Amino acid sequence: MNWIDNVIGYISPSWGSRRAARRQDLDQGKSYDAGGYGRHNANWHVSNESGEITNRYSRDNVRARARDLERNSDMMGAVIGAYKRNVIGGGYTLQAKSNDEKVNTELERLWKKWCKKINCDVTGTQSFNQIIRMAVGRKKIDGGILFLKRYTNYGMIPFQLQVLEVDELDANQTIPKNEKNKVIGGVEVNSYNKIQGYWIKRYSLDNYYIEDPVYIKESDIIYYYSKSRPSQVREMSDMSPTIMRIRDTNEFMTAVSVKERILSCLSVFIKKVTPGGDIGRNFSSEQTKGMDYSGKTLTPGMIGYLNPGDEIQTVNPSGQATDATSYIKLQQRAIGAGQGISYESVSRDMSETNYSSARQGNIEDELTYADERELLIEVMGEIYVTFVISCILSNAIKIPKFWENKEEYLQHIWIQAPKKWIDPVKEANSNKIALQTGQKTFAQICAENGKDWKEQLEEMHEIQKAAEELELDMDKIIYGQVTKAIKGGEESGKTGEKKQRQ
Question: Which residues, 6+ apart, have CB-to-CB distance to 320 below 8 Å?
Fold first, then answer.
């Protein structure tokens, strides 16, 4: 009811009643049940607001609760661990793709060297793989993370990364650098809501403010977060849909654990049948001064005395211990579904799976992880572009006519380190058939296994060359005939048999 209905009901209760009944008829006649305000939706009050307004008043609180669960919930750790293992895994290998193979080889060598913690991290504490692994976790918990490009003289080239938490965006800043822009949550945007720069807090590690926030232009910061609505400017924790379910499950598990610990305690209480002292009118409250219930605990093998007149009353909640397994499984399935991954990925419980179901679940999970990889690869691509330009400007590498053909020399791909398959034999046979039928190329299979196809061919050539020098037959080694791999091995084997017979 709105204020008009309240006024009408106050002046004329009969008209107010008829108006309310008519409104209820209209609500029940709506095209969508979800849009009505009948009995089932009576307490469901919502409103439409922009994405940034919707997130703004809950962002900090949701992030703080997600961090609390990160520190104290094994179930939250399971979800974050699943994303880290599958999105990052063993890390990514750079493969430069320009037309100049010498340049590609040198860029890959320099990149591998730069990825060490002393060169890529301005603090000198994390390698590049460790940084992006941390970034994936922070995106799931905090909603995002900031990569600040720093141009220093500490590393092999004058370019390093400084990682900032989203807390360091100054949400209290309201005055933009450019008067035509506006500041939203520490992010300065233009009239098209395109990010122009960031206002970063400056404080010590104990959160003590030192100076006013500093403005950093958009080209010097990479903002790693997911945007779910066009009107959204800042991040929101990816765990927000499942935070309450994770907390409820943790509370349930704690309650069951406490109950089971109490039930496992065998204790003896001695009850005094007749209290000491006078009884009746002469009984004084002074005699109850020795009764103390503060700090009472139940421990295994405990023998205690009850106060005079006390009796034991047992509170025995039933159901938790027997239903705990099914309840927790149900919750873990819901948590996994809320994050787009399977129950097996969250619980690491494979007792109810076979090869087919596990393979299908893995395929579905890969589609979820692919979204995160796509976003992360864009971030790594921007870092790589800045790396190459820094190498050129610092003369770490000389590329003729680089600026005329910049796009050509910046071409590259990322190869993720492979992970073990459920049934290697079936996967190998599948790849063999795909290669023979032309469904996959040798380069594609190498990329799926985390290998550079050129390096793979070079390794195969080196192995073949070494086998020829040692007079080994590689065909027999491949087919398991190791004892006959040495050329002339059959003749020497027959000679040995004759000697044994003699």
Answer: 252, 255, 256, 259
